[in-house]
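not sure who needs this but someone in the group chat was asking about Flavin-dependent monooxygenase from Nocardioides dubius so here u go. i didnt clean anything up, its just raw.
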Amino acid sequence: MSKQVLDAVRDLLPTFRERADEAEKLRQVPEASVKALEETGFFRMLQPKRFDGFESDPVDFFTAVKEIASADGSTGWISSVLGVHPWQVALFPDEAQQAVWGSDTNTRLSSSYAPTGKAVQTEGGYLLSGKWSFSSGSAHASWVLLGGLVFNAEGHVVDFKTFMVPRDKYEIVDVWNVVGLRGTGSNDIVVAETFIPEAFTLSMSDTGRCYGPGQAENTSDLYKLPFHSLFTTTITTPIVGMANGAYAEHVEMQQKRVRAAYLGEKASSDPFAAVRIARAGSDIDAAWALLMANIRDEQAHVARGEQIPLQLRLKVRRDQVLGTQRAIDAIDALFEASGGRALAEGTYLQRAWRDAHAGRVHAANDPERALKMFGDAEFGHKIDPGMY
């Protein structure tokens, strides 16, 4: 089934590229594009089979995301983010899964995981309130996943949870006026104090140890992978896709380009141009190869019934943040070598440059923190596995 989805997604790439300007003007991906993706089955790739999902290999899912982002960065970004959420929903208690998909298996969720909201323990659940930023694709979702610190009656923090909130319990505030990833509609979410039942929450301490109550019903090895491995790869993959799109456009432009400043020299005859292309291509390929190889290594441990070593999980984060950097370095080099025509509105290159740098500032792409943790573990320092 994954091959059919991938083939259908590839058929849509020219359309996504044509709609890139429209997405920027709307400041969200056109509804027609989301509907077209829905019809390919893309959003079902990581969804449980018992809710009409495909339980696809995550490498196939990430491959589809990379392809989409190679046509338009914003469409690739929200596809990745909205598309990974069914994986987390599958870890929630069955009551929450039924609420989301019981009557409509096409239901989508957006998210904002930074714990900027507050949840207070009460009988049977929590009173949640607050404001969250950067909920990409929120206009195309009818639920949201929100991070929040849990306080007990004495005012002490006792947990960090994800809260699943239906559309009638939150407000979307339009604040997304930005220079990159303009089409992602990453607006604010506001929740006035509302009751969230226990079953609609998931502790990050549980996901940190690769556990969720939903594993009782969803027994596939897919749902035993580390949360942070999948979700940080979800952020880097579109950026690698943007680099692929930038690479393809740069090569095409250079094949046609005549450099007036160099007495009419053809850019394709410039040996330095050839070297730049080779270096950029290697950086992009290396970023992708390491990302997917690490996911494969984690899958192999799960298939053998083994606990995934912390060092491997830290390696996933190391190569994920460096994968983002490699992809952006490649885009920068290609953009700088493309000439003034690359600055024109409507070109993929200038949009990829803006979109990739916008994606770079996501918290998942904080390189120093991830690299320090990897190095500390190599030196034998104690590391909290809950964050990796």
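also The mean pLDDT is 93. if thats useful
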